[in-house]
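Tutorial, part two.
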Amino acid sequence: MQGWVKLFFISPTQPEFTTKYRKLKANIFMTNQKMFDILKKKNTEAELGGGADRIESQHKQKKLTARERIDFLLDPGSFVEMDRFVTHRCSDFGMEEKKIL
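Running the prediction step on this input gives:
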């Protein structure tokens, strides 16, 4: 039985209600905090693109990364990246082993 459903079976006038409500609220906050931390981690990984090695190899070839080119061409704050976490579904040529995120 879900925590919120169990909570509804207790009368709000009982002291047990307040205790269980606080525990549930703390668990929900922790879950949201964990999800936020995971999102931040994925966002950081996505900004690296293929990783620091690929960025370094682009710079060795005197090339800018795609994000650097966009930042160079457009006004600051005018570009919003959509679908940052999308990964490819290609399975040809060993690509299924080369997923970035």
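The CA atoms of residues 49 and 100 lie 7 Å apart. In part three we will examine how such features are distributed along the chain.
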